[in-house]
Design goal:
heterodimer, A: alpha/beta, 10 strands, B: MetI-like fold, 2 domains, ABC_transporter-like_ATP-bd (chain A), ATP-binding (chain A)
């Protein structure tokens, strides 16, 4: 269990990284996200929980504008990253996504070598001046992804040849290689076995020191284990948002309580 | 009372043995066996037809690859060929092919004398065994090698198509009764010469590499020049259809918004693939020749028309290949901050490449075998010229294409051309099978699993 008092005092000092106000998302005619206000803090793991179809993944994808790729999806309201509106017409989503990295539900390494998987982001963003620089970035990223020791001897092997858990850590390493400030994770452990899940969770906890991490999860235990803040979504509404300990032990809203005790969802 | 309502079948009762089949199970099993038998029957019929086709084509067409030759020692008489004796090429040129015919007759007489044969034929009839192109072959040689005048040179002349047919069993003494081109005595003489080793049937590379010949000389006709025509058309198709088709597919699949307008385009592309090829032919005639005034019968125009025809095939297969790339790869690329175009060109396209290549090769193979549009733009003429010597003439000089050449031969009256049409089909099929095999190999080789 978390030491609640300690966590709270640590959280209080942190700055707001992402601030969402009055966010509405529409898929065609359906209103998928309704009036969501949330402040996501820096150097904190924030968990989004809720039953399937509640909009938590949709909201996550708003944070790096991955929803732009869906033709029928419209986003209204303000989402500010460090005080800048990410939906401002002057913002290029490509630059935004370099700052706000993403890890997906299913491990999706490129069908290329492990090295190229990591090096791709830095290459297209011009982060490395030469091969030595790039080698260094690759090593650093793989170390941060807690997978360096396992793959350092076979960087030329295809990334798709790794096990599921290794692939997901490779994807996390790939996401951190572009030096993002926020890391979004969309159910990163749903395709993994319990051992790989434990490794990824441990990794998430380490990542908290450098990044603001937002994780969508179906597992309430996972949310309780890895996050400091938790947001509960239900039917497109943000029902409750607060300290993880408080949400799980003393929820304010009856819907939250029903969900975490297993009566809905 | 319940038993009465069951017509013949008894439902399984509790405690009944599993070792005995019920009537119902038997019926179901029988139905399944019948269905399998129908399927095997259908496949067997298909295979049988294929075997018949292959045997027919090979049986009818292999003859075109061999040809009957007559070997003669011709004395290049200086008195006839260079009357002034100064070896001036312009003077030598004044002797027409008619002037060379007596040399061949003399050579025959000399050969018969040396072998001690008595055919009872006149020298002119003996020379009738040869192709009508023989004196021209002799003249071409002399003009190329004027220094050999006065010497005796050994030549291999093509035999007349009747003699060739006799050697291949197509022409018999019965079949020539009404034939003015050959007599039974000439066939007897042929037998004598075969025994003496003067006439022999060998492999004929000129069929594969040579040009078409006139109605009078089927023995000299070859498919080579039209093969070059087909080759140039394929270059045009590849150079235009691949980039245009791939670019169109990428735009439609990855970038275009899904509106009713793109739906209309999509449906139209699918429909274009089913448009009869002759429609593309008349379109090419109207646009490329009548409006743009490109030369008739040119492989460039043929290639343009076939490009129009191949584009839908390439677009459809390319889009299918792009669709087959899992969306997670696109997400992954976008997630690390790649632009849409980077995600397509760095990740999606390489994964789709084997499918695109396969589609392109299949489209090219389809275009290679297409005849109807070529009829309309005039790429089905009598092209007896030499193979084009430059890229420009290859694209713009009148030429034929393999399937058009085959059609042309099949139209002609002489059965010797019929044999050549089958031979041409063998060559065309070799090309098509090769291309399809290549497509399969490429797909196997580069297909990635993820």
């Amino acid at each position: 269990m978390y030491d609640l008092a300690k966590t709270e005092s640590a959280v209080e000092q942190k700055d707001t990284k992402i601030s969402a106000r009055n966010v509405q998302v529409y898929y065609g005619d359906s209103h998928a996200i309704k009036d969501v206000d949330v402040d996501i803090e820096d150097k904190t793991v924030t968990a989004f929980i809720g039953p399937s179809g509640c909009g938590k993944s949709t909201f996550l994808r708003c944070l790096n504008r991955m929803n732009d790729t869906i033709d029928i999806c419209r986003v209204k309201g303000d989402i500010l990253l460090d005080g800048e509106d990410i939906y401002d017409p002057k913002v290029d989503p490509v630059q935004l996504r370099a700052k706000v990295g993403m890890v997906f539900q299913k491990p999706n390494p490129f069908p290329k070598s492990i090295y190229d998987n990591i090096a791709y982001g830095p290459r297209i963003h011009g982060l490395a001046k030469n091969k030595a620089d790039l080698d260094e970035i690759v090593e650093k990223s793989l170390r941060r992804g807690a997978i360096w020791e396992e793959v350092k001897d076979r960087l030329d092997a295809p990334g798709t040849g790794l096990s599921g858990g290794q692939q997901q850590r490779l994807c996390i390493a790939r996401a951190v290689a572009t030096e993002p400030e926020v890391l979004l994770m969309d159910e990163p452990c749903s395709a993994l076995d319990p051992i790989a899940t434990a490794q990824v969770e441990e990794l998430i906890d380490e990542l908290r020191q450098n990044y603001s991490v937002v994780i969508v999860t179906h597992s309430m235990q996972q949310a309780a284990r890895v996050s400091q803040k938790t947001a509960f979504f239900h039917l497109g509404n943000l029902v409750e948002y607060g300290e993880t300990g408080q949400i799980f032990t003393n929820p304010v809203d009856p819907r939250t309580e029903s969900y975490i005790t297993g009566r809905i969802g | 009372m319940t038993d009465i309502s069951q017509n013949g079948s008894t439902p399984r009762k509790h405690g009944e043995t599993l070792l005995k089949l019920t009537a119902r199970t038997k019926r179901r099993n029988a139905a399944e066996r019948r269905f399998q038998a129908y399927g095997i029957g259908a496949i067997a019929i298909g295979l049988l037809m294929l075997v018949i086709l292959v045997f027919n084509i090979v049986g009818n067409g292999m003859g075109a690859f061999t040809q009957t030759f007559v070997t003669l020692d011709v004395t290049l008489d200086a008195k006839k060929l260079d009357k002034k004796g100064n070896r001036d090429l312009d003077d030598i040129k004044k002797v027409s092919t008619f002037g060379y015919a007596p040399l061949i007759q003399k050579a025959f007489e000399a050969k018969v004398g040396a072998l001690g044969l008595d055919s009872g034929l006149k020298a002119k009839d003996m020379a009738g065994l040869l192709s009508k192109g023989a004196p021209a072959q002799l003249r071409d040689y002399v003009l190329a090698h004027p220094e050999t005048i006065g010497e005796t040179v050994t030549f291999r002349f093509l035999a007349n198509s009747r003699v060739d047919g006799y050697m291949k069993g197509r022409v018999t003494r019965d079949s020539i009764e009404n034939d003015k081109n050959i007599t039974a005595a000439q066939l007897d003489f042929t037998d004598q010469l075969v025994q003496a080793g003067v006439i022999e049937k060998t492999f004929n590379p000129a069929f594969i590499f040579g040009s078409d010949a006139s109605d009078q000389r089927p023995e000299a006709a070859g498919i080579g020049v039209s093969m070059v025509g087909s080759l140039f058309m394929m270059f045009v198709v590849l150079a235009l259809a691949l980039p245009i088709g791939v670019a169109a597919s990428i735009y439609l699949e990855e970038f275009a918004p899904k509106t009713w307008w793109t739906d209309v385009i999509e449906v139209n592309i699918s429909n274009l693939a089913a448009v009869p090829s002759i429609v593309f032919g008349i379109l090419g005639l109207a646009v490329f020749i009548n409006y743009m005034h490109l030369p008739m019968s040119a492989p460039l125009v043929g290639g343009l028309v076939l490009t129009l025809m191949t584009l839908p095939t390439i677009i459809i297969s390319t889009r299918a290949a792009l669709k087959a790339v899992p969306p997670s790869i696109r997400d992954a690329a976008l997630g690390v901050g790649a632009s849409k175009m980077q995600s397509v060109f760095h990740h999606v396209l390489p994964l789709a490449a084997p499918g695109i290549l396969t589609g392109t090769i299949i489209g090219l193979a389809q275009a290679l075998g297409e005849t109807a549009p070529l009829l309309l733009i005039g790429m089905v003429g009598f092209i007896a010229s030499n193979a084009p010597d430059s890229v420009a003439s290859g694209l713009l000089a009148p030429n034929s294409a393999m399937p058009a050449q085959i059609y042309e031969w099949a139209k002609r009256a002489d059965p010797a051309f019929y044999e050549r049409a089958w031979g041409g089909i063998i060559i065309l099929l070799v090309f098509l099978v090769t291309m399809n095999t290549l497509a399969v190999i490429l797909r196997r080789r580069f297909e990635r699993r993820w």
